[in-house]
Structure prediction request, 100 residues.
Amino acid sequence: MGAVHFGELECVKQEDWNGADDIYITLNGHTVYSTRMSEGDKRSIDRSFPFKGDVATVRMYESDDIGEDDLLGEQIPLLGPGEMKFTEDDAYYTLSYVLR
Prediction:
């Protein structure tokens, strides 16, 4: 069993053009964090999330009231510290992490 520690989440460019993004992050298919963000916002998550298996798959979504939620990207963090970038659907978010 491993664990990924999420540090700071930053919104460089939001996905929605009408109001803040409703962001949620999944780890191996399970929602582990959610927040509302606009361009320039930063959030200190500062939490570790355990996972089973050898691989941690992190996905970020923007929740929509109508239709399917927007997938902003999928990342597989590498061992040690790093930064993930979520840039799909014209968004740009960064998330610092440490994988143990």
Notes: DSSP finds no helices and eight strands in the chain. The chain has a mean pLDDT of 95. The radius of gyration is 13 Å.
